[in-house]
Specification:
Blueprint lengths: L2 H7 L5 H9 L3 E3 L2 E2 L14 E3 L2 E2 L7 E6 L21 H4 L4 E2 L8 E7 L2 H8 L7 E7 L5 H9 L13 E6 L2 E6 L6 H8 L4 E9 L2 E2 L9 E3 L2 H9 L3
This protein binds uracil.
C-alpha cells in the first residue's frame, strides 16, 4: 500500500499533507526517512513514523462519537446533517457508517466503523449487546411503571420489549439498559407506560461507557482495550 493512502485511510493526513511531511523528512519507514509519498509499505510489517509519532495501523476503524442533537445517524445527507460530516475530511472518505442509529434528537455514544461484520454482530438481536440510556420523562415514573418496564412492555404495533434494567435517578429521570434496538425503542417503552421522553442520551454501548471528556460533536478512536471489549461480544 502507498504511504499516502495509508495515512489518509487512517485519517492522519491528507495526500497533500503527506507530501509536505515527506518533503520535510517527517515520515520514516523502518527508521529511514522516505523521499516519496507513493513509497510502498506493508502496514502489517513495517514500522512507520509520521511527524515523530509511531503509526499504529488499524485495518478497521472504530470511533466513539458523542452525538449532538439535530444530526442524523446516517451516511446519506438527504435528511439533514449527518454524523459522518462531524469527522475530518480524510475520515469521511473511509467508508465509515454508524453502528445502529440514534434518533435525530438523541445524544450520546454512537459507534462509527468501517467494519461491516463486527457491526452486524453488535447489532444482531441474538447477541443481546447492552445499551444504557439516560432518560428524562415528562411525568414522574411510578414504581409500578418501573416494574412493567423491567418485565418487558408491549409497544405500539404489538412489538414486545425484552425485560429492561431500570435504575431510578429521580421521579422523572431513569437509566435504562436494553439489549435490543427496536425503532424508537426507549420512547415507545415510555409511551407504553403513558409517559413521554423529553431527553434521551446513550451513555453506554456494549458495556463501554461514553467518554465524558468528549464534548457534543467530538469523537475519538476506540482504544485497543475498548475494541477488545467489543470484539468479545461478537464471539
Ligand atoms: N430509543 C429511542 O427511542 N431513540 C433512540 O435514539 C435510541 C433508543
Amino acid at each position: 500500500m502507498r504511504i499516502d493512502k495509508l495515512l489518509t485511510t487512517m485519517g492522519l493526513a491528507t495526500r497533500s499533507e503527506t507530501s509536505k511531511a515527506v518533503r520535510k523528512g517527517q515520515v520514516k519507514v523502518n527508521g529511514c526517512v522516505i523521499s516519496k509519498s507513493d513509497h510502498k509499505v506493508d502496514p502489517e510489517k513495517d514500522t512507520i513514523e509520521y511527524m515523530g509519532k509511531p503509526v499504529l495501523y488499524m485495518k478497521n476503524i472504530y470511533i466513539m462519537l458523542n452525538k449532538p442533537s439535530g444530526i442524523v445517524s446516517s451516511t446519506d445527507g438527504k435528511d439533514g446533517v449527518t454524523v459522518i460530516s462531524l469527522l475530518p475530511d480524510e475520515l469521511q472518505k473511509c467508508g465509515l457508517f454508524p453502528c445502529g442509529r440514534l434518533d435525530k434528537d438523541t445524544l450520546g455514544f454512537l459507534l462509527l466503523t468501517n467494519d461491516g461484520s463486527t457491526a452486524h454482530y453488535l447489532l444482531s438481536p441474538k447477541r443481546h449487546v447492552s445499551k444504557v440510556y439516560y432518560v428524562k420523562t415528562q411525568s414522574p415514573v411510578s414504581d409500578s411503571d418501573i416494574k412493567m418496564l423491567e418485565n418487558g412492555v408491549t409497544l405500539d404495533h404489538g412489538d414486545v420489549a425484552l425485560p429492561a434494567k431500570v435504575e431510578k435517578v429521580c421521579d422523572t429521570e431513569l437509566k435504562i439498559t436494553i439489549v435490543e434496538g427496536m425503532y424508537h425503542q426507549i420512547k415507545r417503552m415510555l409511551e407504553a407506560v403513558n409517559n413521554k421522553v423529553i431527553y434521551l442520551e446513550r451513555i453506554e454501548f456494549g458495556t463501554l461507557p461514553l467518554d465524558t471528556s468528549l464534548k457534543r460533536g467530538e469523537w475519538r478512536y476506540l482504544t485497543e482495550q475498548e475494541i477488545d471489549v467489543l470484539m468479545k461480544q461478537t464471539k
